[in-house]
Write a structure and sequence with these properties.
This protein is mostly beta strands. The protein contains no helices and four strands.
Length: 63
């Protein structure tokens, strides 16, 4: 079975990939963010403290 991801509505070339993270207490947070896999697009959607944000620059973590 192959996973199907939503097509990016900004660039229409990439797909939105789900990203997970860990909360302050170490609990896993599934699908905290979605990011387009097209490197020239960079579209992303995030959930931070219950607020949805999108379009922020994506960079590699220093952690």
């Amino acid at each position: 079975m192959r996973a199907r991801f939503a097509r990016c509505l900004r660039c229409k070339e990439g797909v939105l990939l789900p990203l997970s993270d860990y909360g302050r207490d170490g609990a896993p947070i599934k699908f905290k963010a979605w990011a387009c896999n097209n490197p020239t697009c960079g579209f992303n959607i995030r959930i931070d403290n219950g607020e949805i944000s999108y379009g922020r620059s994506i960079s590699q973590s220093t952690k």
